[in-house]
Structure formats: C-alpha cells, structure tokens
Amino acid sequence: MAIDRSRIEEENQIRLSWHESDLAHAVDVVGRSGVDAEAVIAEVARFSAAAPSWAVGTGGTRFGRFPGGGEPRDTYEKIDDIATLNSLTGANRTVSLHVPWDDPGLGAGAAALRRHADDLGIGFDAMNSNTFQDNPSTTDDRNVSYKFGSLANVDEGARRAAVEHNHYVIDLGVELGSRALTVWLADGMNHPGQASFRGQFERVLEGLGEIYAHVPDDWEMYTEHKPYEPAFYSSVNNDWGTSLLLAQGTGERVKCLVDLGHHLPNTNIEQVVSRLAMVGRLGGFHFNDSKYGDDDLTVGSITPFQLFLIIGELLEAGGGQMPAAAYMIDESHNLKDPLEDLIQATDALQVALAQALCVNRADLADAQQANDPARAAEVLHRGFRTDVRPLVAEARRRNGAALDPLAAFRAIGYRAAVTASRGADSVATGL
Ligand code: RM4
Ligand code: MN
Ligand code: MN
Predict the structure, then answer these.
(1) Which of 219, 276, 326, 345 to pair with 260, CA 20 to 30 A apart?
(2) Residue 360 in contact with residue 34, Cβ under 8 Å?
(3) What pLDDT digit, counting tens, does each position of 42-83 carry?
(4) CA atoms of 260 and 269, how far apart (whole Å)
(5) CB contact at 8 A, 359 and 383
(6) Is the pTM of this model over 0.85?
(7) Residue 226 above 60 pLDDT?
(8) pLDDT surpasses 60 at 431
(9) Residue 181 in 3-state DSSP?
(10) For a substitution probing ligand 1, which of 259, 263, 331 has the most ligand atoms within 8 Å of its CB?
C-alpha cells in the first residue's frame, strides 16, 4: 500500500491557513537576524537521510522484543514502508541495506528489487556488510566463525570469509546503484590479554585494504567507530582517531562515519566532526541520540542542543550547506511504531538543521574574531531558540510531503491497513 499524494494534500488542506500565518511570522523573525528564510527552507527541502532496511521493524533488547503487528515480511515490504515514510517527510529518499539481513541476490534478484524501489522513488544508499554474527552463506560453507572476530581474527579462513562477504556486498551495491560501503566491525576483545592490540589493528588494516581493492572508482568506503559492544573490553575501531588511522592507511576514498551513539559520555562530537571534516575524511553519519551509551534513542530526544551544534559544524564544513555525505538514521525502535519513530527522527533532524541555518554565521565569526563569547552565545542561541517548525513544514510541503507527518500518518491509517494485509503477527527479519 502506497500513500496517495492527494490524501496527503487533503491532510495539508486542513492545516493550511494556520500554517500560512505561522510561516509568515517565522519568515519575519528569521529575517530580523539577517538570515534568508527562503534559503533555510530550500536547504531543509534538499536534505535527506536514509532509513536502514532493518529500521522499519521493531528493535528490541536482549530482554525482549515487542512487535506491534503489520511489520514488513521481506525486503520489498521494507521498501514499501520507507516509501511511505518518504511520502510523509519528503526527506527519506534512500534505503541503506544491511547484508545478509536484506539480500536480494545478484542478477535477477537485485534487478527486481532495484525496479521495485525505483517505482516508489527510493534509491540505495551506503551498503552495510554485517560480519558481527555468523552468516550461513559465508561462514557455514567454510566451517569458520566470526566468534573471535572477522577482519581481526587470527583465523585466516574467517578473515577471508569476511573480505569476500564485503566484496559480495560491493557487487550487490553496484547492481542496486549504491555508491558506498560502510564497514562497522564488532571485532575486539572481551577479556584482557585475549589478543594483541597491535595484531588486531594490523589485521583489520590489511583486511580493509583487500576490501578497498574491490571498491569501484566512483564509490567511497566508510569506517565506523564504536567504543564498546559487543566487545566490552576493547574494540579495534574504538574511536575517531583509530577510525582516521584506518581510513588514511587504507586509501584516498576511505572516510570516517560518525554514529552519534558511538562515543563515550561527554565526548565533544561536534569537535570530532570539525576535525574529520578539516582533513577531508568525514564520509557518513548515523543519527540517533543517547543517554548512556549506544542507546539508539530517537534523534534529538535527549541532547537537542548537541545535535544543533553538530549540524552547525556540518554546515561549516559544507560552506553553509549540508556537505555531501551518507546520512542515515540508526535507531532501535523499541516501544514506538517504527514508522512513527522514523517520522519523529526525521523531523528532529530537519528542525535542528533549520535552527543551525538560522545562525547568522557571519555574526558568529565576528564575535569570535572580537573575543566576545557573550555575543557568540547570543548569536548561537538566537538560532537554537527560533521556532523553525513552520519553515520545516514549508520545506516538506514543497517536497509534496505532509505539513504534519505524524498526524497525517495516523489519519491515513497506514499501520492499520498493513496490519490487515500483512497480518497482526508479522515480524520483520533483521535486528
Ligand atoms: C552497530 C552500528 C552499526 C549498525 C549495527 C547493527 O551498533 O551502529 O551502524 O549497523 O549496530
Ligand atoms: Mn551505526
Ligand atoms: Mn550503534
């Protein structure tokens, strides 16, 4: 079931006159800071964040999972859900496949999935190669296991399986029209002394080199760091410095991917963004929020000011625009309807982007140059405290999407419709 544009338009009509007066006021307020509201709307309208293929099903923890019914039964239905999300937000135009959770197979399988996505206006973002659990197709046949790691494993057979799986994921991505590979590794140690820090790092670097040799010229490859979990004593790619070493040591088109949940508490993530952008190695982003660790909470739900500052650094790197990078929402939807959580996450991103665009960067630079932290704070806060919601709604409307996507999603009754067609007990595969 795809949502009809005219149905969204009907929902928009209900809110249009309020929207118009709110918008006129917002344009006026923003203009007083010397910011062009039209430019803000245009940049928000241009922005898009991929949805991972597994995100349209409920997540869960090792203590349980509580599916809500009507979940997509296969990759096709996952793309249907993402198309629905995109028709409401106008800002989720791609899907990021995690293989083997979602694997259409090379040849006819990939071609058919690509056609299906294409018909719904959905493209394929960065490919993800899962080597953190045994994959029957790559490990069983060879009688190897990722239990003690994939690329970092001392077992040559496991390393080979991991490299070949990555090659396969690249081949699949080429057939789907993707342009990047993200490598997140669970490799590390759970016990002190279990392995050599240096040996593990060197094996990962070597493996990344073998993977990179297969990456097409017009592709990029990303290394994603994470401090811990499932390796609770040490992860090989534990922080942005290690990630940068791996990227620089592997090749020119290898960049770092920053997942907002993959930092120890109080890490200054906006500074990490600035550093990576400075050396031209900022390649991708996974958006979520966290209170304690890799909690995968809804974007902007815990630390909205930090999100605003991070997006500010991205705009700095992109000369006032969001720089070209692979942006993905990486959350676990445990209690909310996954589509509702994705709608809220996307909205939070658009709001933070609009707030960051409302910062008059010339004024900020002036205050910095004058060593005037009070004025710098005023300039920042004027952006952060602007009620940008009408500008964001307008950006969505111009993309043919909903003024109020969550209200529209509920009014249209998408979940009830897919629960009827897919079944109340259908549970998505993957995470
Ligand atoms: C990791 C990381 C990766 C994601 C896996 C499933 O914590 O965030 O991006 O692919 O989880
Ligand atoms: Mn991630
Ligand atoms: Mn994570």
Answers:
(1) 219
(2) yes
(3) 999 999 999 999 999 998 888 888 888 899 999 999 999 999
(4) 7
(5) yes
(6) yes
(7) yes
(8) no
(9) strand
(10) 259
